């Protein structure tokens, strides 16, 4: 394991320990059911806002939405617009009313008990049905969140040989840590940990597209980078009303994407935060914080999808060396689209190279077809790589163009063909 991976692993371990400590500290103030299930209805504005939005977005914000924009272009931004509208309406229409009504309706501590008290269901039918619906759909929802976390863990610390094993280990560790701090501190511990995660998500999701854009446009325009990656018409790709193939985004598609925002009115993990806020004044503060957080995070998430589409060869070149005998070029070959990758390519008639990503361990066999070279002029070479994808565990084709000089050095980077 590299030094960088060891540092990241230690950071993960420290983070997990902090989460458990939060659960332990939160347990000290838990004296009754209201404390355990609603934090004593004493959440502050910042905690309520960030915990609600972090638990809402979770891994989907960092993986799902960027992936959608990456594949189809900015026409998918309408999903983010719908989510923003849903967030705003939920905070302004539902939050304060729900908080007050749950107190009046028998001091309801859960959404199912609120339905039972609100509609005076003496037989408990509504309570039972709503509890079953929440249990079924939240099982799937929670599984997807655990899966995204495990994939992140496996991508950081695994490779093509042990990916599934590392994925399983990451999944088990995440489940254990979450169960421990939840059982210890209850709702209050969950909110405090989500508050920290909301801050981390905001910082990371703002930094990534900015840094990536600067790196990708180091020696190339962003539009040209998109063209190099296989986008035939960047104007269409960056148009809210166009699909990647140039066709118009249909009204049905726009409405369907906007409809994502309707889900907010029935998300128990968000509604329960409204119930736990300690006062109306804190609700007003929370809604402002939450809306600003959502605007920034959704915009940055869409930008990540856009910059991810640009090829890695726009990055500044790495260092190069020359060996005696067969000329050896050290360049960038990114089978996994990571940027820190080493590729040793021999420029003989039947060149072969072994590319290994320094970040995630993906490997690819490359063959280089080199054109005639002269000392004065640059010539072109092409690399064809067959890389085993860490995400699909299947063979994918990659191509790259590299420029060579009379000194025997080669620069360039491999990128997925489309």
Give an overview in words:
It contains twelve helices and seven strands. The chain has 418 residues and is of the alpha+beta class. It has a seven-stranded mixed beta barrel. It is globular. The model is unreliable at 312-418 (pLDDT under 50).
Query: Distance between termini?
Result: 33 Å
Instruction: Compute the CA-based radius of gyration.
Output: 26 Å
Strand line-up of the largest beta sheet: 1-2-3-4-5-6-7
Q: Which stretches of 5+ consecutive residues score pLDDT under 50? A: 312-418
Can you give the helix content as a percent range? 55-70%
User: Could you state the order of secondary-structure elements as H and E?
Assistant: HHHHHHHHHHHHEEEEEEE
Secondary-structure map:
Blueprint: H1 3-27, H2 33-38, H3 45-72, H4 77-104, H5 111-118, H6 125-157, H7 163-216, H8 222-228, H9 234-237, H10 251-258, H11 268-276, H12 280-309, E1 328-333, E2 341-346, E3 353-357, E4 363-370, E5 379-388, E6 395-404, E7 410-416
Parallel strand pairs: 1-7
Antiparallel strand pairs: 1-2, 2-3, 3-4, 4-5, 5-6, 6-7
Helix pairs in contact: 1-7, 3-6, 3-7, 3-11, 3-12, 4-10, 4-11, 4-12, 5-6, 6-7, 7-12
Short descriptors:
418 residues, alpha+beta, seven-stranded mixed beta barrel, globular, disordered C terminus
């Amino acid at each position: 394991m590299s030094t960088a991976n060891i540092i990241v692993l230690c950071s993960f371990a420290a983070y997990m320990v902090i989460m458990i400590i939060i659960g332990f500290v939160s347990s000290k103030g838990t004296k009754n059911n209201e404390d355990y299930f609603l934090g004593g209805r004493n959440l502050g504005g910042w905690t309520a806002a960030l915990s609600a939005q972090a638990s809402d977005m979770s891994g989907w914000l960092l993986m799902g939405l960027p992936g959608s924009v990456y594949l189809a272009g900015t026409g998918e931004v309408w999903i983010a617009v719908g989510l923003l509208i849903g967030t705003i309406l939920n905070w302004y229409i539902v939050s304060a009313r729900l908080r007050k009504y749950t107190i009046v309706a028998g001091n309801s501590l859960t959404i199912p008990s609120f339905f039972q008290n609100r509609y005076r269901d003496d037989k408990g039918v509504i309570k039972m049905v709503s509890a079953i619906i929440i249990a079924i759909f939240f099982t799937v929802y929670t599984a997807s969140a655990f899966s995204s976390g495990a994939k992140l863990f496996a991508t950081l610390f695994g490779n093509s040989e042990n990916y599934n094993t590392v994925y399983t280990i990451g999944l088990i560790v995440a489940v254990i840590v979450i169960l421990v701090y939840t059982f210890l501190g209850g709702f209050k511990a969950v909110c405090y940990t989500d508050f920290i995660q909301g801050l981390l998500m905001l910082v990371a999701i703002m930094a990534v597209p900015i840094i990536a854009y600067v790196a990708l446009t180091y020696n190339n325009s962003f539009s040209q980078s998109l063209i190099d990656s296989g986008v035939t018409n960047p104007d269409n790709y960056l148009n809210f009303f166009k699909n990647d193939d140039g066709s118009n985004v249909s009204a049905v598609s726009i409405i369907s994407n906007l409809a994502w925002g309707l889900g907010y009115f029935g998300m128990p993990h968000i509604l329960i935060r409204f119930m736990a806020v300690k006062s109306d004044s804190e609700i007003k503060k929370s809604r402002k914080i939450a809306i600003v957080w959502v605007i920034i995070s959704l915009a940055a998430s869409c930008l990540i999808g856009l910059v991810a589409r640009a090829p890695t060869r726009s990055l500044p070149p790495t260092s190069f060396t020359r060996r005696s005998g067969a000329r050896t070029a050290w360049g960038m070959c990114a089978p996994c689209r990571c940027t820190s990758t080493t590729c040793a390519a021999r420029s003989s008639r039947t060149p072969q190279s072994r590319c290994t990503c320094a970040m995630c361990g993906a490997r690819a066999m490359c063959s280089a077809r080199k054109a005639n070279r002269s000392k004065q002029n640059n010539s072109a070479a092409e690399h064809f790589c067959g890389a085993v994808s860490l995400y699909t565990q299947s063979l994918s084709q990659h191509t790259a163009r590299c420029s060579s000089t009379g000194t025997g050095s080669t620069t360039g980077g491999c990128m997925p063909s489309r």
